[in-house]
Amino acid sequence: MPAENEIVAELDLGEPSQELLDWAKENIREDPNTKCQLLSDFKDMIYSRGECIPIRSDDAFLLRFLRSRKFSLEAAYNLFINYHNFREDNPTFVESVGFECLEIAGGYDVINVPPYLDQAGRRILLYKISKWDPDNYSIDDAFKATLMILELAMLEERAQIKGGICIVDCSGISTQQVLYCTPSIARKLVQISVVSFSIV
Q1: What whole-number distance in Å separates Cα of residue 50 and Cα of residue 27?
Q2: Which of 80, 131, 148, 152 is the most exposed, having the fewest neighbouring CB atoms within 10 Å of its CB?
Q3: Domains of the chain: which residue ranges?
Q4: What residues are paired with 111 via a beta bridge?
C-alpha cells in the first residue's frame, strides 16, 4: 500500500488546463465571469437557510457542489445538504477514518481506482464484488474506503468538472454475498452514488 504522501502525489492537484476550463464552460456552465458571484450566492443560501452546520464553507469546497450540479444553485444546495445529512447520519463512515481503510480495500482487491482515466477523462472506481469476503472485510469497511476515495477524488478539479464513473463487477457473486446486500445497504449505496456525493 502506498504511503499517504504517495497517494497525494498520484492525485492531479494542479490548476485545470484551459482546455478543461473551456469544456466546463460549455458542458457544466462554469463561467469565469459569474463564478465568484454564484459562490457568494451559494454561501449566502447555506447560511440564510441554516439547514446544516457546514464542515467547510471555503470557495474550493463549495465549488465542487456547484460543478456537480452544473452551477444550478438550488440543485447544488440540495446536494450540499444531502452530503452533510449523510455524514451526520453515518458518523462511523467518516470519523477517525484514515488511509488504512484504503489498504484494507486494496489488500482484498475489492475496490480499485485504476491509474488511468476513461475515454471521457473521468476517474474510474471499480468494485469486484466476487472478491468481497464479508467475514474478513465488513460492509462498513467498504463504505469507509469508498468515502475516502470519493473525498480524495474531489480534491482533483478534473474530477469535479468531469465527474467519475463507478463500475460494479458482479460476475461470480455468491449467495452469501447477496444475502449481505440488505435494503439498508442498498439505500446507503444510492445515497453515496446518487444523492449525497458530488462526483459519481
Answers
A1: 31
A2: 131
A3: 1-200
A4: 127
111-112 sheet: strands from edge to edge = 111-112, 123-128, 164-169
Can you identify the CATH homologous superfamily of domain 1-200?
A: CRAL-TRIO lipid binding domain (3.40.525.10)
User: Which whole-number Å values give the CA distances from 148 to 95, 99, 100, 175, 179, in the listed order?
Assistant: 11, 8, 10, 28, 25
Cβ atoms of 108 and 142 closer than 8 Å: no
- 151's grid cell: 473525498
